[in-house]
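As a warm-up, study this chain.
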Amino acid sequence: ALSMGLNWKDNSSNETGFTIERKAEDGAFTILTTTAPNATSFFDDTVVNDCKYTYRVYANGALSNSSYSNEASWTTVPHRPINFKASVHSSTPRITLYWEDTNLHEQAYKITQKAWTASAAQAIVQSITVAADTESYLDEDVKPGIRYTYSVIASGQGGNSQATAEESSRFLAAPSNLVVIYPPDSTEMTLRWQDNCNEEAG
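Now compare it with the structure written out below.
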């Protein structure tokens, strides 16, 4: 669960507690809670993803309250990207990734690419960072016959979102050396070519 940690210095010796006020984004401050005397920290577990929160604190006294502390702001972890998919191009070795940006405060999107060859025991992993508000990425570093898996996270001030589910794509190697065989004494024409991949469906 998300939470926001607050810390402050207790500069009074006779307070009855501390009142914490909070505002979300550009809204108005409202009272969040009042702590016990001598408290110097509080965890706010009512925050939500991708929201900028601003806090201020004052000490409560039997006769009057102190002035406000300074204001402190922080933005929570972004939402995970949604509707993530990978689409392979039919004519050239390229794969386009698509996702939906539902965040206001993300600072970047981070893509993890894993390349799996037929003989490799482990994938070759590459990290790619794209700008905030991006909703697609064209991967041109793709080789025929290699299976690629991708996932995406949103990165912000509060940390990284959860990763999307992985999407897999493969660009099949095109056949080559196509020839036509038509013997002079035959009524049939034969086509032959070199099969450069081993995972085609037909």
